[in-house]
Amino acid sequence: MKRASNWLTVGALCGLLSVALGAFGAHGLKGKIEPQLLANWDTAASYLGLHAGAILACGLILLGVREATSIGAAAWAFLIGAALFCGSLFLMALTGERQLGMITPIGGVALLIGWSLLALGAWRLRGAAH
Fold first, then answer.
1. Confidence (pTM)
2. What is the pLDDT tens value at each position of the chain, 130 positions in all?
3. For residues 37, 20, 3 and 105, what is the CA-based torsion angle, rounded to 10 degrees?
């Protein structure tokens, strides 16, 4: 139960950050950074929100299932992927340092791994739910 509540908390905080950072980009950065960097910021905020939902889903699944190793691993992959993918885009937008873009694909791969692990975990649970 503790593991599930931890992931629910992390997912909720990621959702909060997504909304706050999205609003900051729309209102605080518009006209202050070049359009491509603002587009990167928007992408980061959107992906953070999407993966906040994925982390919340993992937490909800873990509420009802004790042995769901793939689901817990998926949550970690989503968190790491969002930190690297979204974090690198946020930093690139703020600093203009385009070399940070080299980190972005690593985060993207972690996000793909998260979705794969979630699919695997869901497949393994197919017989457990009625």
1. 0.94
2. 689 999 999 999 999 999 999 999 999 999 999 999 999 999 999 999 999 999 999 999 999 887 789 999 999 999 999 999 999 999 999 999 999 999 999 999 999 999 999 999 999 988 765 4
3. 0
